[in-house]
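Forwarding the complex inputs:
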Amino acid sequence: MSSHREAPEISKDPVADSTDLYAFVSPDNPDTVTLIANYVPLEGPDGGPNFYEFGNDVVYTVNIDNDSDGDADIVYEFRFETDVTDPGTFLYNTGPITSLTSGSWNRRQRFSVTRIDHNGRATLLGSELACPPCNIGPLSTPDYPSLAQAAVHDLPGDVRVFAGQRAEGFYVDLGAIFDLGVLRPFEQDHTTFGLTGTGIGKMAAGVNATKSLNVHSIAIQVPVAELTSNRRTPSGVGAPNAVIGVWTAAYRQKVRMWDGEGDHVWAGPYVQVSRLGNPLVNEVLIPMGKKDYWNSQAPAGDHQFAPFYANPQLAQLLPVLYPGVFPNLAAYNAGTPNRADLVAILLTGLPAGVVPGFQNFTGTTQADMLRLNMAVPPASSPQNTGILGGDLAGFPNGRRVFDDVVTIEVRALAGAVLDLVDPSFTPDAAAGAVDQGLTSSPADTAAMGTENYLPSFPYLGVPASGFAVPAA
Amino acid sequence: MAVSRRTFLGRGSMAVAAAGVLSSVPGLSGLLGATESEAPAADSSVADLGSTDTALSEPLVAHVRDASTGEITLFSGTREIVLRDPQLAGRIVRAAR
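Prediction (whole assembly, two chains):
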């Protein structure tokens, strides 16, 4: 998954587990940038009576580096509180929830958002902001789209925020990929380790494992000029203030003690327990023994992880799992791999001259951040393969909700763009053809199971309802 | 360039010195709490503390990290105080037996 359950420790702490991060110039409001950090992976929509919520004891942040040192210069910090109207009932709601102030809604959350600048100055942008309820069903949450939209809050300074349940927008064939690297559209080429009678061997359509699942999203839309180092809108793609680096992180206090009466107390400073910049990095590139540590570290120190980007295990495995399909990659791997392409895409950004008319280079500091060149306007004909598909407004220039990041990164790992930094390398034909079979074409921005993206803030779709999508 | 964490912590802390790294976000570090190194008290006897000093408004947790060196970490509120007091560490260890 993008970053769902990607490390041993955080997989046991869902409310602090960042799953996806998006950063893009708002297509319907291009003077602004939208940042979305998702948490709480793989929510079954019918997971009551204690439906999903944010952690009151977790501090969530969306961080922006605008001077290319891998440290945050702007932090948007989100904290949540939960109110229980009637502790005498077991019910989440005692009647239809028809508004965010409905008396029949028993357990609700509210949040604050604070902007912290590079001087450490904290500005409370909003407090007592209502989250929407989870989408339970037609009796409990009738007209859910309107109910949730009421939880979009406009704050001073042209800032817009939302925090609550959304439909999972990330699409991936988990069941196949984690079964030793199967990609169903290409499974006939998989080695299958010599096993027979597995049912694997014929080309098959991809399966979106996250279809009908929900997440909890923290979304904020801010003016472009609020994010730049000089608080001015960049004049062009090459402007020194055009690129920002973005990551999300979650923090918990160091000590937790159960009081023996069903409650617990916390003590000590907050420490980082989860972070996410580029999709799939901790998931796929970082080895098991380093994953929890990676989650505790700041991007500015990512040089220590650079070897895992420069010689990723999955790039080594592809020619092994698919014999004869990636001969050039196999030959490259047999040498001394140094994947400068992946290091550039994920750790430093792409310098000018690599992709015509584009750059999101942030200097030599290696830091895993989602880099967004805010001077690139929204695409009129977006491609889910982003820059690989010639769409400069898509991943790895930030990330939009519909970008097929799995296909993009698998292609990159397979060497599809290695020739950009190593002209002696010729990409295998398969490298540019691999996909997970969940989109009909690069122009398909409503991938299987995620057709409900919204055209406006918060862009991720109305969550699946528990009544409509019972557990399988 | 962001200000250093040490600079930020210095504004509101009575700590002798800051130690450890909480976050790459200087401002956030201050809001999320601090790790501090305290010199051991001249007299750590609880009996010498006034009644006001013994009233805890929030949980206080002591973690004896290394009894041999007397390294004890105290967690209170959003603070973490590291002190070295072999005698106190020894008394805690004996009390826990």
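The interface with chain A takes residues 1-3, 8, 21-28, 30-35, 58-61, 63, 75-80 of chain B (CB under 8 Å).
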